[in-house]
Amino acid sequence: MIPSEINSSISSTMDGASGINLELSKKLIQSYTPPNGGTTKRIPNDTAKAISELLRIFVVETQARASVEAECDAVEDAANGGLANIRADHITKVAVELLLDFS
Question: Which GO terms describe its biological process (predicted)?
């Protein structure tokens, strides 16, 4: 279950394309504490848009890779009628690859 704050933030952006809300991106950036102990005060909209697009690509790529894992499991486990439902363990399997690819 997705918390309502996050669920409402994963909505359409100002241009109508599906993506991560700019305010959520700004909050994520502001939650980061730089190594020198400073704080992030003001986030320009261009930065928030770039972070939103990166997060959108990350989520889409996670879904694509996890669906491949789910399909492999569905083939191995024909008891569920061959349906490929993405579970947390599928995302866990692809998490290391994703983090290395996006670093």
Answer: DNA repair; kinetochore assembly
Q: What are the contacts of 64-68 at 24+ separation with CB within 8 A? A: 65/94, 65/97, 65/98, 66/90, 66/91, 66/93, 66/94
> 59 near 9, Cβ under 8 Å?
no
Class of domain 4-101: mainly alpha
Structure token digits, residue 65: 């890779």
Helix-strand-coil split of the chain, %, nearest 5: 65, 0, 35
Q: Count how many residues are written for the chain.
A: 103
Integer Cα distance of 96 and 57 in angstroms: 16
